[in-house]
Amino acid sequence: MTDVVTAWTDDEGAAHARALFAEMFPDHRPDGVWSAPGRVNLIGEHTDYNGGLALPIALPHRTYVALRRRDDGAIRLISGRESGAWETSLDQIDPGAVSGWGAYPAGVAWALEQLGHAVGGFDAAVASCVPYGSGLSSSAALECAFAVAFAAAPGWTGPDAATDQGRVQLVTACIRAENEIAGANTGGMDQAASLRSQEGHALLLDCRDGSIRHIPFDLAAAGLELLVIDTKAEHSHVDGQYAQRRATCEAAAQTLEVATLREISPDRLDGALAALQTDEARKRVRHVVTEIGRVKQFVELLDSGRVREVGPLMDASHASLAEDYEVSCAELDVAVTAARAAGALGARMTGGGFGGSAIALIEAGTSTQVSAAVKLAFTEAGFGAPAFLTAIASRPAH
Ligand code: GLA
To answer: What angle do CA 86, 89, 92 make, to 5 degrees?
Structure first.
């Protein structure tokens, strides 16, 4: 299969990060190398900030950070993806005070400090094979790799990354970094996926109380594969669309006098829709409530060993995201339609939308055929070439 984005091994990733560190900071050695994965969400989209359910897996594609602690509070960062160093110091970080890619890692240090942990400055080099701007959580992978690096730094008092409880605190710090310092008001699924997933399992995440359940997810055993189609239509969460969706949901919850839309059970949906003022609010709420229902059905199928039957739920999720939530785009629609026509059991956009990636559940061994069909459809539609990844449920940040 061509145009495939392969994942680095840990040795390759660490070597890339160390080489970059040596180039940028020739007089020092890093204390170590830490890494964290990107994710795809199987189902449960735009549910996290509504207290709902999501079902992501960690990708084999990871971001690697070679890091050295400093005692003086200075922060110096270099990335294989950006030209030039990004520099600030710990006491300069505040909401609205820093911008650019370094705001994500610097924000994590800031958030840990806000949460009462002692952290300091650092020099770090970042290398990543998580496609950037593709809806695969490259920013969460970046935050979470730094989070585990900070947690491991001797002399700093970070949360204990060896326990899930410690990882919950790291998730909180990463969310604050993204919301308050990087300025993207995202919901937290991506950071939980990167920090709390388990290899070979999907992560059932309950965003009402933060509880999780690891659900065995072995597609190979069922003769299946999960193909990720990176449409290359760039998406961003630091723009108005995502925030608007979130604001509409929060306003609807207020109108309905519930803490979050999670409280609207399917049998109350009609009544809730009738109580809302605008068609837009009704469509958004219908998506959230039905999507949470689809996560439950998806999990029931996994629990009873019927993974081959989840396709229609993926298709329904995509339709709901396209029509009710209005976060799909032409490239995503073409990708899922072409994948289904080429034999996928189900396909949907994954992540925030407005570009980014789609996932297709396919028979093992058919990825060449399905990706060729998607590429052809893209050419016919006049879009640039997409790229492809195989998603295997992988390890969390370490
Ligand atoms: C982005 C956000 C997540 C989540 C998804 C949509 O990935 O970062 O918090 O809201 O979109 O499900």
So the answer is: 105
Domain 220-390: CATH superfamily is GHMP kinase, C-terminal domain (3.30.70.890)
pLDDT digits (tens, 9 = 90+) for 251-290: 999 999 999 999 999 999 999 999 999 999 999 999 999 9
Per-residue pLDDT, 321? 98
291 CB near ligand 1 (under 6 Å): no
- Residues 6 or more apart in contact with residue 304 via CB below 8 angstroms: none
pLDDT of residue 155: 83
Ligand 1 pocket, residue 351 CB under 6 Å: yes
Average pLDDT over every residue of 352-373: 97
Closest-CA residue, ligand 1 atom 11, reads: 352
The answer, yes or no, to whether any atom of ligand 1 lies below 6 A from the CB of 56, is no
Task: Average the pLDDT over 306-326 and give the result.
Answer: 98
Is residue 205 within 8 A of residue 189, CB to CB? The reply is yes
Ligand 1 centre and the CA of 45: distance in Å? 7
Residue 1 scores a pLDDT above 70: no
Burial class (CB in 10 A: 0-12, 13-18, 19+), 257: exposed
Distance 352 CA to ligand 1 centre (A): 5
Kindly state if the Cβ of 352 falls inside 6 Å of ligand 1.
yes
| 250/260 Cα distance (integer angstroms) | 7
Atom nearest to 135 CA in ligand 1: 7
Atom of ligand 1 nearest to the CA of 189: 9
60's enclosing H/E stretch is: strand 56-70
CATH 3.30.230.10 in the chain, residues?
Answer: 10-216
Q: Which CATH number fits domain 10-216: 3.40.50.1820, 3.30.830.10, 3.40.190.150, 3.30.230.10?
A: 3.30.230.10
Which of the residues are catalytic?
Answer: 190
